[in-house]
């Protein structure tokens, strides 16, 4: 375990080992806020120390975490759990450590005006106490990474991993007191109440990852207390295969991407557009890829189970509804295996074609091992169909970075765009992770995360020979009227000149 740095508060060190469950949610907020006010804004070394201990919490207990995730899901490969929920957090935590000193420094702006006696700067102050709610599909990655951003910004953090993955939450709740005082990091469990109880906390920022429906409820609760909210939500993510793309490469990538975590990823491709002439080739290659990858399913520990019975039945309902209304279903079912299997909650990889408006799967995010494929003749058809849905969290493009890609990007909206591979925008601390519209608001990762949990605080000092207060308060003298009129004339001149330049460029 990482040794706490000397600058860590002695009060914080003295309360190590105290479980969050010894206090109510309200008490945890009060404890953290009191500590924040007592200790003041933390220096860079304190922030880096907290981020480092956060990483150690995962790395030191990785095997126990992977076992808990497998138990929560019923079947989940150890390799996926370690890659996503442990190692997958380290990229951004390391980026936060490297960047925090520069990001937290006060920014000097308008230096020329400063020489004239009007000095301006921007402080990057912590908000105070941050509450972070995570989902069940990646219960640690999607709580620990934003927690690292919150620590970089100088805040105290209360985590609430999903109650659906209770075993994993218990592991983190058990070990967290060995690394953190509850003044720094507290872990809320089901013993603290429901997610809706957590959403009502009077904190300084609420961060939520999950479905749009629950996200709307969280935002409504937070709004009652005027608490700012960051929402990282889901959506039906489209994929577009270009007319001259390598079909084998595209089919292989999208078949694999759909099956990450059993399809239970907010970034999985949900539906694919393929050039009409290549539809049969594409679907055959997807099915062939799944057949190769999953020679067995029921007893295959590397085939992730659907998280619970509710979602298992929901996904089967979407498949059945589409098939009954005329869609064509192709499933990869190894010989002799009675799939779908309710006991293990395993649904075979399923490919649907002929899906039309009116089918439930046309509107609902699947969040399971099902891929819908549509043929297209012209890219305008694709743009029209994508734009008829709420904005997705991401979009996939298979092909070159060409004029057709540019047309798609310019005429659609999504949280991100990934070309030729799965979720690769996650593997850089320089890129934000953020939804748009129905898929979320606000973002994190890298500096974006630091800024999400900071307040850009304007600071202005004047040594000017004139007083703004005097100029803007009565009595207004003739000289004041003349000054105002001259200002308007000057701004009108500049604006007319700018308008002429714009019209000339537009050819108007």
TrEMBL record:
<keyword id="KW-0560">Oxidoreductase</keyword>
<dbReference type="InterPro" id="IPR016162">
    <property type="entry name" value="Ald_DH_N"/>
</dbReference>
<dbReference type="Pfam" id="PF00171">
    <property type="entry name" value="Aldedh"/>
</dbReference>
<feature type="active site">
    <location>
        <position position="266"/>
    </location>
</feature>
<feature type="domain" description="Aldehyde dehydrogenase">
    <location>
        <begin position="42"/>
        <end position="459"/>
    </location>
</feature>
<dbReference type="InterPro" id="IPR016163">
    <property type="entry name" value="Ald_DH_C"/>
</dbReference>
<dbReference type="GO" id="GO:0006081">
    <property type="term" value="P:aldehyde metabolic process"/>
</dbReference>
<dbReference type="InterPro" id="IPR016161">
    <property type="entry name" value="Ald_DH/histidinol_DH"/>
</dbReference>
<feature type="active site">
    <location>
        <position position="232"/>
    </location>
</feature>
<dbReference type="InterPro" id="IPR012394">
    <property type="entry name" value="Aldehyde_DH_NAD(P)"/>
</dbReference>
<dbReference type="GO" id="GO:0005737">
    <property type="term" value="C:cytoplasm"/>
</dbReference>
<dbReference type="InterPro" id="IPR029510">
    <property type="entry name" value="Ald_DH_CS_GLU"/>
</dbReference>
<dbReference type="InterPro" id="IPR015590">
    <property type="entry name" value="Aldehyde_DH_dom"/>
</dbReference>
<dbReference type="GO" id="GO:0004029">
    <property type="term" value="F:aldehyde dehydrogenase (NAD+) activity"/>
</dbReference>
<comment type="similarity">
    <text>Belongs to the aldehyde dehydrogenase family.</text>
</comment>
<protein>
    <recommendedName>
        <fullName>Aldehyde dehydrogenase</fullName>
    </recommendedName>
</protein>
